[in-house]
Amino acid sequence: MPTPERCNCGSEDCPRCYPLNRKQAEITEPHRERAIEQAVETLMDHGQYPAKGRKQLDLYDILTEERDPSYMAELYIAAMADNSYLFRERVEKERKAVTELLWLWLKDTDLIDELAQDIANDDE
Questions:
Q1: Is residue 51 scored above 60 in pLDDT?
Q2: How far is the first Cα of the chain from the last one, in angstroms, to the nearest whole number?
Q3: In degrees rounded to 5, what are phi and psi of residue 22?
Q4: Cβ proximity of 105 and 58 under 8 Å
């Protein structure tokens, strides 16, 4: 059976132009929080978002833009020192600071809006 040609009316609710278009679920604050959590976790684990494929966000770029680069030298010096306990403590402190930075940085982005919409649609 041949598929009908699009009528090109431009209306997103046209069943002929957009046969698979479905009503989008409403985004709630928990959806947004889950979206941010997912994006931050992926960035922290893989250094980019998404984890595979063409990256939309790069942790290195974000950190060089938002953080003082001297913290990298401090971590390097701590890594070269013999006291591994202090190094682990410093790494955890930096991970917490970067996670908080990413939450604030991502909060009002289109990426989070799109991800939250996907989560809301999947929950429905």
A1: yes
A2: 32
A3: -120, 160
A4: no
CA distances from 13 to 16, 22, 104, 105, 108 (A): 9, 9, 35, 34, 27
Which tens digits make up the pLDDT trace of 13-46? 665 565 555 577 888 999 999 999 999 999 999 9
Q: What is the Cα–Cα distance from 105 to 51, expressed in whole angstroms?
A: 18
Q: What is the rounded distance in angstroms from the CA atom of residue 55 to the CA atom of residue 24?
A: 25
Residue range 52-71, pLDDT digits in tens? 999 999 999 999 899 888 87
Locate 28 and state its tokens. 């709630």
Tell me which H or E stretch contains 58: strand 57-58
Rounded Cα distance between 29 and 88, Å, is 34
How does 24-60 read in b/e, with b if 16+ C-beta sit within 10 Å?
Answer: ebebeeebbebbbebbbebbeeeebbbeeeeeebebe
